[in-house]
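B., you asked whether I could sanity-check this one before it goes into the benchmark set. Here's the sequence:
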Amino acid sequence: MDHKPFFIALLGLILATSAQAQWKWKDAKGNLQFSDRPPPSGTPDKDILQRPGNAVITIVPVGQAASASAAPASAPIAPTKAELEAAARRKQEQDREAARQKEEVRRVAEQRRDNCNRAQSNLRELQSGVRMSRTNEAGERVFLDDAERQVELDRVRGTINTECR
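And here's what the prediction gave me:
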């Protein structure tokens, strides 16, 4: 005797029973929610429109996961101590990263102020008309001519434009 039709009929009966074991409620936004699990804690009784009977049977075929669109809404579960500690560590790391970024912004701003001050000082010296000199690769002192002074003036003005904002 073939038991396959009997088994299929029994499975259909069980599935029909579990399909009726549904919760129905309105969420905080007024949207209807359906699930085989109770609504989140804190949902007012007036918003719970349907409760399942006493017997709740859920059948999930072996090796198959529920699709994301059919995933039931589950009641929030209190986090474990390990989860709380992990969240605290993540928060500390985020705080450290924010402090590092803030320090980097402060450091860059300070460097720009220093660059601006030095460039403005160089500009005043170049515009003063005082003879300026440099040390060349051979270690000798060489005075700037008018063309070299103009090149240096242009370079310093470019630095002021970028660093003194």
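One thing to flag: The chain has two domains: 4-59, 81-163. Otherwise nothing jumped out at me.
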